[in-house]
Design brief:
327 residues, Alpha-Beta Plaits, Ribosomal Protein S5, domain 2, single chain, binds (R)-mevalonate, 4-stranded antiparallel β-sheet, alpha+beta
């Protein structure tokens, strides 16, 4: 039996534009997904999750396509349970050259699902790392990141950048631009995360931006400007200039809003943070609902978000310099 964990992450700059080859800057945070994997005698998968939903669930199913999952939960839960884990296990089987391997998989996660903090990447990275170790194969974080990216690409039907999986596998702050991936020597940041309790549909949001970009030159220009902002944001991050970092985050939120991926609750949390004196605030991830990230050294943003109707959870997040690890 092997247990591995991997961190969630947030985007400081560049979500959506990164899908079109622009740079993005992201930071792993100290909220992790933990996956325990134990090899079985047969080729079945049993997926057990306490935390991915409020109620938790258990799914057991065979490898043959005609074998239905043995569950009494909704279709979307089955997909949530099986989509990423199934593809992650397939990657582990491939890496270990063990196509018939079956596993009991248990998932615990501190990262809200689909909320812009890369819960799926963290689960996928931890699952590949644990399952390959269980089969006696030791992958580097880079190899895990690459295999996890293939999983996200497949499950999200091509709507995935390498940011989430690379950041989760390596930890720390990262810059991603197309195929290039680089770890950044970032300072500690006073990050505050607000969560509206909801989740956006990443595929639909990415498709919406793609449509806008294909329809209007000014939308395509907006995507390019998000890339320019990420380039400047990276310099400012490395300089540790929090004031300018906050200004650029505000700017990035405005551009994401123009591209149609913000929401009333995300805007409300961003404005509450700004009114409370945050240095900057923006949505993180695909948008449509989920989380915002604000920069504030004081307690003011946390307090303001805690009392904001529509904000379900607030927490301070620290940069997590440790990527995927064995527990
Ligand atoms: C979703 O977490 C962020 C997007 O940029 C997609 C991706 O980078 O994979 C919208």
């Amino acid at each position: 039996m092997v247990t591995a964990s991997a961190p969630g992450k947030l985007y400081l700059f560049g979500e959506h534009a990164v899908v079109y080859g622009e740079p993005a800057v992201a930071a792993a945070i100290d909220r992790r997904a933990t996956v325990t994997v134990e090899a079985r005698d047969d080729d079945h998968l049993r997926v057990d999750s306490e935390d991915l939903t409020l109620d938790g669930f258990t799914v057991e199913y065979g490898r043959a396509a005609e074998e239905d999952p043995d569950v009494d939960v909704s279709e979307s839960l089955i997909e949530a349970a099986t989509g990423y884990v199934d593809a992650a296990v397939e990657q582990a089987r491939d890496a270990a050259d063990a196509p018939e391997a079956g596993f009991d998989v248990t998932i615990e996660s501190e990262i809200p699902l689909g909320a812009g903090l890369s819960s799926s990447a963290a689960v996928t990275v931890a699952a590949i790392y644990a399952a390959t170790r269980e089969l006696g194969v030791e992958l580097t974080p880079g190899e895990v990141a690459e295999r996890a990216y293939r999983v996200e690409y497949e499950v999200q039907e091509g709507n995935a950048s390498r940011t989430d999986t690379f950041c989760s596998a390596t930890g720390g702050a990262v810059r991603v631009e197309g195929e290039d991936r680089e770890s950044l020597d970032a300072p500690e940041l006073p990050l505050v995360v607000g969560f509206d309790g909801g989740a956006g549909d990443t595929g639909a949001l990415v498709a919406g931006v793609r449509d806008l970009k294909d329809t209007y030159d000014f939308a395509a220009d907006t995507v390019d400007v998000v890339g320019d902002l990420a380039r400047r944001g990276e310099e400012v991050l490395l300089d540790g200039d929090l004031e300018e970092l906050g200004d650029l985050m505000d700017f990035n939120h405005g551009l994401l809003s123009a591209l149609g991926v913000s929401s009333r609750s995300l805007d409300a949390m961003v404005w509450a943070a700004r009114d409370a004196g945050a240095l900057g605030a923006k949505l993180t991830g695909a948008g449509g609902g989920g989380c915002v990230v604000a920069l504030d050294e004081t307690e003011e943003t946390e307090t303001a978000l805690r009392y904001l109707p529509g904000c379900e959870e607030v927490f301070r997040a620290a940069l997590d310099t440790e990527g995927v690890r064995i527990e």
